[in-house]
Design goal:
Strand order of the largest sheet: 6-7-8-9
CATH architecture of one domain: Alpha/alpha barrel
Strand content: 5-15%
Number of strands: 11
CATH class of one domain: Mainly Alpha
Largest sheet: 4 strands, antiparallel
Structural class: alpha+beta
Number of helices: 14
Length: about 350
């Protein structure tokens, strides 16, 4: 989640001004609803579109919500969002044209989009949003949920590329916000959502053996979890969200919060969260640079731990950067730190 969103979302009322949202729209959202990663080649992702929907919902900005939704459907799902999962990656192709560069979907974006749609239906009393959201859930179940034997029912990061040889599966733990699975379990009690979370949690506790969340890990059909076999094991730009989800899932997430305390200890020692950590042994791989977005992501986690001094240190870093730059972090708008 956006660092500034975590700081200010709780202060919002339905009709309140939210200058951070206005700044986000100005810097990262085109008038046609495309959410742009200006830091990396002007690309767009289904994740960015889903976060844009969520922020617009929080801001009670229905016009922008609809604009982002329409661009997402038209450009990532062939105008059939709900009947199709959105492609995860849109940008400049090798021939210079702009469009989908990878048709695979990203399960976290799919979950967040479905959630935003279903909540939009409730808050704005507009059932059509819920219809699209529920059809999207059906597509997630059909294409991204698998039976992993003794490992249980699991959500793959996408339909393609995550089923490995030997009955193994590659998982991305930041794609498992526990509160979303509880939400969907209540909204769709016949769906697999409770099973997915209940299958994932014991595997995560094994994969987080050093108290550090990895970007990805591997499980097999016997209920075992292993370090990532497809890339050098690391906890970095994806894993940082695991701490966010654990922190805002309390008390249900308290077991995860306690398990992940070693990352808070590293942050306390260094003053800021380390950019990259070896999740197999807790060794810091890169500490010289720490994205400000990391500090934002840790706020609910540190609050859940009750680590007030480290929490205040991260809040100060974010607030000072925002004051210097008028609602964006650093000397230039950086999509990752904001979103």
């Amino acid at each position: 989640m956006a660092a500034l969103a975590l700081l200010f979302c709780a202060q919002l009322h339905a009709d309140a001004e939210w200058p951070q949202w206005e700044a986000f729209k100005k810097n990262f959202v085109q008038s046609d609803g495309r959410v742009i990663d200006v830091t990396f080649d002007g690309k767009s992702t289904s994740e960015g579109q889903s976060y844009g929907l969520f922020f617009a919902l929080v801001a009670n900005d229905r016009a922008m919500f609809d604009t982002i939704l329409n661009w997402t459907s038209a450009n990532l799902a062939g105008t059939e969002l709900g009947n199709r999962l959105p492609a995860w990656y849109w940008g400049r192709r090798d021939d210079g044209s702009w469009g989908v560069k990878d048709t695979n979907s990203a399960a976290d974006a799919d979950l967040w989009t479905a959630y935003a749609l279903m909540e939009a239906a409730r808050l704005w009393k507009a059932p059509a949003y819920a219809s699209t959201g529920r059809r999207l859930l059906d597509q997630i179940v059909a294409q991204e949920v698998i039976d992993a034997g003794a490992s249980g029912t699991l959500l793959l990061p996408g339909p393609q590329g995550f089923k490995l040889a030997g009955g193994r599966f590659r998982l991305v733990p930041s794609y498992y916000p526990g509160f979303l699975f509880r939400y969907f379990a209540a909204a769709d009690p016949h769906g697999p959502w409770a099973k997915i979370w209940n299958s994932f949690l014991p595997l995560a506790m094994k994969a987080f053996s050093s108290g550090i969340a990895p970007d990805a890990f591997v499980v097999d059909s016997n209920g075992q979890a292993y370090p990532d076999s497809e890339a050098p094991p690391v906890g970095s730009y994806d894993a940082i969200r695991v701490y966010t989800w654990a922190g805002i899932s309390d008390p249900q997430g308290s077991e995860l919060v306690r398990k992940l305390e070693p990352f808070a200890a590293l942050t306390r020692k260094l003053g800021q969260p380390p950019e990259k950590v070896d999740p197999t042994n807790g060794t810091v791989l890169a500490a010289s640079y720490s994205p400000l977005g990391y500090s934002g992501a840790l706020l609910p986690f540190l609050r859940a731990l009750g680590d007030e001094p480290t929490l205040q240190r991260q809040r100060d870093l974010i607030e000072n950067a925002a004051l210097r730059s008028r609602f964006h972090l650093g000397p230039h708008p950086n999509y990752y730190d904001q979103a």
